[in-house]
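Quick log. Single chain, no ligands specified.
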Amino acid sequence: MTTFLPQEIIRHKRDGKTLKAAEIEFFVKGIANDSISEGQIAAFAMAVYFQGMNVAERRILTDAMMRSGHVMDWTSFNLNGPILDKHSTGGVGDKISFMLAPIMAACGAYVPMICGRGLGHTGGTFDKFEAIPGYNTTPDFKTFQCVTADVGCAVIGQTPMIATADRRVYATRDITATVEAIPLITASILSKKLAAGLEGLVMDIKTGNGAFAETEDFAVDIATSIVTVSPIPTAAILTDMNQVIGYCAGHVTEVQESLAYLKGDQGEPMMHEVVLALCGRLLCLGGLATDQRQAESLVEQALSSGLALEKFAKMVAALGGPTDFVERSQSYLTPAPIIEDVFIQAPGYLQQMNSREVGLSIIQLGGGRRVATDTIDHCVGYSNFAKVGDYLDHHRPLATIHARDEVSLERAKSQLLAAVTMTAQPPQPASMIIKTL
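-> predicted structure:
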């Protein structure tokens, strides 16, 4: 590889020039082997934030970051279905991965899902799976691939061996106000997903007051970039994040809600709408369905037949969890010491919810991290959450709080009540699906 001066590459991008493939590849290799300093990464990220990257540059960056770590090869497994996955930009109560992975496996796909920890006010799938006793969220690659091939799905946590350069870039972006740089968002997401050897990907781009992309325009920009840059069949669905997804938010509570869903309780209708949309689009991308209608029929069949639940049970057992987790989940998922309803002060309709504040209140309960070294309390959170448009009074609570102690309980009550707006008239119903790209 040709030798460049890192500062010259930074200067080129700072001045709005289009970087050559060799420049980008050299810089990414230097990030991965630590020959590029954190200061140089920060300067590069800031230059990209202000000057952007064209589609060709984004593709080169994505490919270089993907190849900076381990790239999975599925050839020897002789899989008889497509390798598919979904990625969410994060939300409050976002438990869709628990449902999507086993549903897709039940429909004939293979889903090697590498998920992340909670970020800011949003919960992480990785953390939720850690609530299951014995479940190994960090197996070696051989185990990960074998479980995926045998069961049809495996959900694990991020590993430093995948897209190695991205770990340093992401950490630097987080402390230099460059997280919103769309070329870097694109490369970060796609490099990790492509390293898993995928053949199709669906993006759940959330937008609203509880999303990373608060505005629809920003969400569309992210979605367009990812769909355009991705070298594999990729679709993006914009979904609403102006209220908690489903009825639960936390860890244990979300696992319980997911299990109920897989057992045949469709639960909260808007959550089901998102599951159908994402699974349906992914089945079409993978050639397992000819259109959305057929795809959604396959999803419903996977749920009603019990096959999706069976796939989930097998995955949990194969990755070290209890072999009877599905049957005896209540005995494995420790409940919070205090479980109490919170009621609004005067009857009315729930008009608005600041889901970001709800997410922050979960952190205050102990269900998230203030600093990276914090230990998560998996049993705290919320269940029985009201939806926008619901009529609340002294019979119907806003939510049920699961708390460790009285102090955190009272604090959560105050935060929760301050995060909602009530009205005397029922608001217009909203759809969870905003746009598909």
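The chain has a mean pLDDT of 94.
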